[in-house]
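4.2 Preliminary Data

To establish feasibility before requesting continued support, the project team ran the inverse folding procedure on a target of 297 residues. The structure was first converted into the token representation described in Section 3, and no sequence information of any kind was made available to the design step. The complete token record follows.
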């Protein structure tokens, strides 16, 4: 996949999926703006890209704080003349059940994921429209946002909101030839190490041990397994792909469905509570919808 001539901005690129994608973008020929809250981590990724013959610059900024998105986009324009792709990957976890979740944890998770993605998407869209020629917005969703997950209500809400923004933005930017998609990655990272079922596998990966094949078949892989989907979505080969949520992880590539009605009943004149109770068995005849991310690893 050839990304020669393209300029890519990747947020949260100091570690994990962001880092793996920044390196993959560089190998594919893109010039890369590497953002991370940790400036040393961002510069280390830049050094890896340039050591391999690529071009990259680092921007230390906390995504979700005012001005950080604009600083990243400005760095792309000042360093390389334009922006072609934004991969919004920055994120944090503060998992807890509803009754134990404090406001500061809510604000941090929603501010980084949802507000941060909004601000980065807005800054990138403004640049795309000003320079012309299209572009690609690639957002980061999560199985938790698609299915829910115990102890991750705030994170799930933020990730679900990102997919909602993606669908709307894909409609708003179609005239500008800007594609907007979300990836739904399942990879072992330091963030997923907080999930008890995944923690042993993260430790094994960090020791350099290969992942069990059954785990890969279920869609759990490494950050390097996720990066190719982002490279594809940034390429000209994906110009016709927009408004989609695409899963990637381990040996699995998937297309997620959009929410849709699964059963509809009509009642002339409308529904009373009693009528709903009487008709409920028909509404639920095919079963209620499942919730929760499977964690049988």
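Position-by-position output of the design step:
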């Amino acid at each position: 996949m050839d990304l020669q001539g393209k300029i890519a901005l990747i947020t949260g690129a100091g570690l994990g999926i962001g880092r793996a994608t920044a390196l993959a973008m560089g190998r594919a020929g893109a010039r890369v703006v590497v953002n991370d809250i940790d400036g040393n981590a961002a510069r280390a990724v830049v050094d890896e890209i340039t050591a391999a013959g690529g071009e990259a610059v680092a921007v230390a900024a906390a995504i979700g704080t005012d001005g950080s998105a604009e600083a990243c986009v400005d760095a792309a324009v000042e360093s390389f003349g334009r922006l072609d792709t934004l991969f919004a990957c920055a994120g944090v976890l503060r998992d807890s059940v509803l009754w134990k979740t404090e406001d500061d944890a809510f604000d941090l998770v929603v501010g980084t994921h949802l507000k941060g993605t909004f601000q980065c998407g807005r800054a990138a869209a403004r640049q795309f429209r000003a320079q012309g020629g299209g572009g690609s917005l690639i957002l980061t969703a999560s199985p938790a946002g698609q299915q829910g997950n115990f102890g991750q209500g705030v994170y799930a809400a933020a990730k679900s909101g990102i997919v909602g923004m993606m669908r709307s933005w894909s409609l708003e930017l179609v005239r500008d030839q800007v594609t907007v998609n979300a990836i739904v990655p399942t990879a072992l990272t330091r963030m997923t190490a907080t999930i008890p079922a995944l923690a042993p596998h993260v430790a094994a990966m960090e020791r350099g041990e290969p992942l069990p094949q059954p785990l890969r078949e279920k869609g759990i892989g490494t950050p390097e397994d996720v990066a190719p989907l982002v490279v594809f979505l940034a390429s000209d080969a994906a110009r016709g792909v927009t408004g989609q949520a695409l899963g990637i992880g381990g040996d699995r590539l998937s297309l997620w469905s959009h929410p849709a009605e699964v059963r509809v009943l009509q009642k002339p004149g409308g529904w009373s509570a009693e009528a709903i109770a009487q008709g409920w068995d028909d509404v639920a005849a095919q079963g209620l919808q499942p919730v929760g991310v499977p964690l049988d690893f």
